[in-house]
Amino acid sequence: MRKKWRDSGLKGWLYLLPAILFLGVFMVYPLIDVFIYSFEEGYNSASQTSFGVGVYNYSYVLHDPYFLQAVRNTFLLVIITVPLSTGIALLVSVGLNSIGPLRNLFQTIYFLPYVTNTLAVGLVFMILFKKTVYSDGLINLLLTWFGGSPVDFIDGPYCAKMFVLCFYTIWVVLPFKILILTSALASVDRQLYQAARVDGTSGFRIFMRITLPMIAPMIFYLIITGFIGAFKAYSDVVALFGTNLNAAEMNTIVGYVYDMLYGDSGGYPSYASAAAILLFAIVLTITCINLLVSKRKIHYE
Amino acid sequence: MKVVLQNLTKKFPGRGRKHAEEVTAVNDFTFEIPDGELVGLLGPSGCGKSTTLNLISGLLKPTGGRIFFGEDDITELPPENRGVGLVFQNYALYPHLTVKQNILFPLQNLKGKDKLSKAVMLEKANEAARLVQIDELMDRKPGELSGGQQQRVAIARALVKMPDVLLLDEPLSNLDARLRLQTREEIRRIQKETGITTVFVTHDQEEAMSISDRIVVMKDGIVQQIGKPQAVYDDPVNLFVARFLGTPPINVFAGRCRDGRLYVGQDAVLGVSGIADQEVYVGVRPEGFVLCEDGPFVCRFGSVEVMGRDISVVSEHDASVGPTVRAIISAENRVDTTNGTVRFSLKPQKVFLFSKETEERIQGGITECINGVTMSGRRL
């Protein structure tokens, strides 16, 4: 009896039970529910009834210009910020790793944004970029200084707004990436560098052939989480451009889902679900591609 | 290529804010390593042997003194221009590269007129791999190799560009006992085949003695003795060297010289000549004991350890510095332990005297007979 109990692995399942319960109730069930909603046409949350089952919700969402705008914004944000922020973080970490004195000071400075409140950051960006009746904002001040004409970054042309959003996103995600990469760099066996030096390897080659491959797993981790994080961007956009994102042409996919549920034009859980499932599909596909590439190219110890 | 170290000194700044004292890791090291020799740097941990190696490789800059390869002063040269091959203690193989890529790595660094074609590089890599007998493993990654195989890859990588000087830092310390024996012979063979001047660092005296042409014994950054292994073993300059070389280690007793006799405890055990009366340390190699029924050296019997060819007699003596006295004698002897004591006579050439104050060796004649008196003290 006792033996059977152990062999069946019941004990293991028992230990896993709390986690499974929570995950089931708060993750798996909602996911399945959203999936079902997304196929129920004309679902009414008050009466909890629908007209029928079909792909109309998807068709509606895919033809909605606001959704297409949101997809374009999100993709732009991902494509611009993920490589840029990872690249800049790598440069800063390598720099940090190679300076001796003041290293701790700079490490602290670079990490400060991570522990700063998002709203405070938003306020700072507002002061930097926003054009009001009273002032043009600090950046515009600088622009005019150097002979440029002031641009309205918050309510102005699309490019300017996109620029601010990307700038903000990169600035916010940078500290975490720097933290991860500096510790990854520090964990590379120093003897590898010594061995390479004795063998007459140039600094550039050491970086390309030793440093990069050795920290590649961490870089890849950052790229994957960076992709997922950027695809889910929403609060940053709200902090910069307010809640009426469709009007500002700055909506994201998550923002679209939120608007469909609660926004002024909201009350459409079916459309929201369809959009959410579409986002899920996009993120899943890209993450799978990432993992496939990483398995081929990266050496994991 | 011969390697000349001239008054080589390395000081490290002290740690901590107050009372930061400089640490002298290598102190005034002068030595000429002849071309094509295998030299073992030997000493306990922290004696500066690895620092010396790193000074030769160029990874550390000396505080004082000069280093010459052949006739060229290379003291200021960075490591990449010195033409040395270095094998690290934990091999430092690039884990993400295959064995072949690891061995090719140094060749791919060559630039300008030294640049090699792909085919030549591959040929050289294969040659190095064959030399250390790993040509079967070229496409594996270091993580898939055993410690001994990784060690060979590291040697192949250091050898592939045919360095003028090969440096090995504790090359065998990560290997198990059997592999260590095998690999040290391997290193010897490779060194003889290539004729590359080789310096290797070890704390294992057996390892150093067995393969070196010459050993350098170091302590606290100061060279104690340099010489052929057997010569250093047979003629140590001080108590430290005598103690450091030999397994089992040398037995040390407190003793004194008086009137041409050497006393250990109350017993006159040997005759001495040309040595002033003084307190001394008496070092006796384990193989310096001879079982002898009326021998002058009386110990309390402890136990006998049979080691096949030899037996090891463990006993105690009041004047011994260590807790036990270990004598190694041929297994043909029968140890008579009826009255709890065991008596030895000593081989004079296996007995060394050291000054009690300086622990330096006292040179002088040691003989078995003392003025016509046998070793037991009875008149003939």
Secondary-structure blueprint of this entry?
The complex is a heterodimer of chains A (301) and B (380).
Chain A: H1 2-7, H2 10-37, E1 40-41, E2 52-53, H3 56-63, H4 65-98, H5 103-115, H6 118-129, H7 138-145, H8 158-186, H9 190-198, H10 203-231, H11 235-241, H12 245-248, H13 253-262, H14 269-297
Antiparallel strand pairs in A: 1-2
Helix pairs in contact in A: 2-14, 3-14, 4-8, 4-10, 4-13, 5-8, 8-10, 10-14, 13-14
Chain B: E1 3-12, E2 23-33, E3 38-42, H1 49-57, E4 64-69, E5 72-73, E6 84-87, H2 99-108, H3 118-131, H4 147-159, E7 165-169, H5 177-194, E8 197-202, H6 205-211, E9 214-219, E10 222-227, H7 229-234, H8 239-244, E11 251-258, E12 261-264, E13 267-273, E14 278-284, E15 289-291, E16 297-306, E17 310-316, E18 325-330, E19 341-346, E20 351-355, E21 365-367
Parallel strand pairs in B: 3-8, 3-9, 6-7, 7-8
Antiparallel strand pairs in B: 1-2, 1-4, 4-5, 9-10, 11-12, 11-14, 12-13, 13-21, 14-20, 15-19, 16-17, 16-19, 17-18
Helix pairs in contact in B: 2-3, 2-4, 3-4
In the CATH hierarchy, the architecture of the largest domain in chain B is 3-Layer(aba) Sandwich
Distance between the termini of chain B: 60 Å
- Structural class of the secondary elements of chain A? mainly alpha
Which topology of the largest domain in chain B does CATH recognise?
Answer: Rossmann fold
CATH class of chain A: Mainly Alpha
Helix content of chain A: over 70%
User: Largest sheet of chain A, if any?
Assistant: 2 strands, antiparallel
Gap between N and C termini of chain A: 42 Å
Please tally the helical runs of chain B, counting DSSP H or I stretches of 4 or more residues.
Answer: 8
Oligomer state of the chains in this structure? heterodimer
Shape of chain B: elongated
Main sheet specs of chain B: 6 strands, mixed
Number of continuous helical runs of chain A: 14
CATH architecture of chain A: Orthogonal Bundle
Mean pLDDT of chain A: 86
